[in-house]
Amino acid sequence: MKKIRVLIAKPGLDGHDRGAKVISRALRDAGFEVIYTGIRQTPEQIVNTAIQEDVDFIGLSCLSGAHNTLFPKVVELLKEKGADDIIVFGGGVIPAEDIDFLKSKGIRAIFGPGTPTEETIKFIKENFKGE
Amino acid sequence: MDDIREIEKEKERWENTTVKKSIEKFPERKDEFKTFSHINIKRLYTPADVQFSYLKDLGFPGEYPFTRGVQPTMYRGRLWTMRQYAGFGTAEDTNKRYHYLLKAGQTGLSVAFDLPTQIGYDSDHPMAEGEVGKCGVAIDTLKDMEILFDGIPLDKVTTSMTINSTCAIILAMYIAVAEKQGVPQSELKGTVQNDILKEYIARGTHIFPPEPSMRLVRDVILYCKDNLPQWNSISISGYHIREAGATAIQEVAFTLANGITYVQKIVESGVDVDEFAGRLSFFFNSHNNFLEEVAKFRAARRLWAKIMKERFKAKKPASMMLRFHTQTAGCTLTAQQPDNNIVRVAMQALAAVLGGTQSLHTNSRDEALALPTEDSAEIALRTQQIIGYESGVADFIDPLGGSYVVESLTDEIERGATEYIRKIEEMGGVMKAIELGYIQKEIADSAYEYQKAIEEKKYIVVGVNEFVKPEEPPKNILKVDMGKELYQKEKLRKIKESRDIDRVKKSLENLKSVAKTDENLMPSIIECVKSMASLGEISDALREVFGEYKEM
């Protein structure tokens, strides 16, 4: 069976990468193939990497408050490039009222501070469509 | 006095009789007790665990090795500076918040800049989209800086500015604003962070490669030495290293290792260590493990004093003093049951005070969700005031000094940090260790271990992995709307239209030519900001000469 492939990405200028690194490692330990982009990626760079790496999921991490601008842009670009089968989820310092907005823009789940990594792993397993 | 051997012998007896009998019936909560720095916590600490020489290892406050504090009378003279880090939206918004905080009794300002300002992009740059005014105030030109400090006399307040890659530019703007207010540079008091090494390690707002970045750090330090004698020209920061996941020992080790690197850099340029070391300052985190944190501050102070005296042969006491700002640990705040954060912050703040901090920022309860509202920011400030004015701890100097536990932990942290510093030096120093990814990996390992410990419930986080209850998300959250970004872009456009473009171009050309030499960059940067060149334009001029750093 094909391994589940996940891209963890840091859009925008935010340098807080503790969460992104921790979740990358937890997903790897859970048996997924994980690519981490490093900090300061534009939505275009993230989408290009996702397509090149043929990932099933993109996890976006942002703690600077720019999530409402940057997360939807990633989903839009995926659509434009016909890659909207890639499932996008996110995490970071994100107030509750923004979660509804982000979901309406096609971000499938938001994992805030204090979320056990197990929850994200479960989300990925349940939403993986396979071959 | 009891004989130490006698105490040890008696302790053994106590373990084998009284304790043994007790744990048969009531076993201890854990098989082994450890701090997160992997320090073994003994069942009981006695005089046998703290065999220091009082005069050599502790000494007296205000004297080498400063274990008990840097000022002779500590808070009996003056309380620490209550300095709340604040900034959001436009300079207009933040100026209002500063007036509010000063009226509420805050004693110093601390500026949070948005990410585009920190990374050298104007608000209208494509990379700035969505980030303008989000986690700090947006500053594009000198005009914004004038608005930011409108009605705030710069000869009266002290200002700390969290700025690193673009530190020289922001400091130049501050100097220019002061000049307009009629305040000479020599009277300015405050701090710039100017600590680029930890940006590569943990915080991520670097622009240029390490070499030219270190030159900018040096230029700011030396410019301040000659022109702003009361200014702290660097704040060597463990805060962000800890936030990224480091342990208390790693925080001390990596911060002091960075400090060594800066001192070396300046000394290499031919300046005597006692000419500048007195203006170096530090910035630490205050985390959850109360006693370990108190010990950490004391250990850092003693170790730095030794490094400055023994290694750099400093002669002035001021050069050996580790003066520091503290912020409570943002990473310990929970989005769940956010009011609990008030209690966490109070204890972390108390640890910082018992550890002898010179200034303090207390986090607000809602910061795991967004920037703080005015109400939350006020509770955070009140927390400091309660510690300072009501708890009584400020009347004592180093009140935990002499505690068997705290002295033993102080020794252990100093030992652990010394060992790390040795390892880094064997590797070829901090710059090499960063290049190899060693420091980053050590921190990431600790962060992952911490996360696992929480998920395995080895660590309990109240409201997160225990004592959980369903709750409604809090409603009153500070929002910075997109209107701010548009307003800021428009302001910048108007300034660009109305300035003397020839003067701007000339100043930027001059900056580039100075950048190619080894001359101090500050005077030409001051001329650039006065010509109304924008922060982005000045950064771009330097990018042209220095190039950009690419993370591996």
Structural class of chain A: alpha/beta
Arithmetic mean pLDDT of chain A: 95
**Main beta-sheet strand count, sense and barrel state of chain A:** 5 strands, parallel
Class inferred from helices and paired strands of chain B: alpha/beta
The helix content of chain B is 40-55%
Annotation keywords:
heterodimer, A: 131 residues, alpha/beta, Rossmann fold, five-stranded parallel sheet, 5 helices, 43% helix, globular, B: 552 residues, TIM Barrel, nine-stranded parallel sheet, 22 helices
Q: What order do the helices and strands come in, and which of them pair?
A:
The complex is a heterodimer of chains A (131) and B (552).
Chain A: E1 5-9, H1 18-29, E2 33-36, H2 43-52, E3 57-62, H3 67-80, E4 87-92, H4 96-104, E5 109-111, H5 117-127
Parallel strand pairs in A: 1-2, 1-3, 3-4, 4-5
Chain B: H1 4-25, H2 54-58, E1 81-86, H3 91-103, E2 108-111, H4 115-119, H5 142-148, E3 159-161, H6 167-181, E4 190-192, H7 197-203, H8 210-227, E5 231-232, E6 234-237, H9 239-243, H10 248-268, H11 273-276, E7 280-286, H12 290-311, H13 317-320, E8 324-328, H14 340-354, E9 359-361, H15 374-389, H16 404-427, H17 430-435, H18 438-455, H19 483-498, H20 501-515, H21 522-530, H22 535-546
Parallel strand pairs in B: 1-2, 1-9, 2-3, 3-4, 4-5, 6-7, 7-8, 8-9
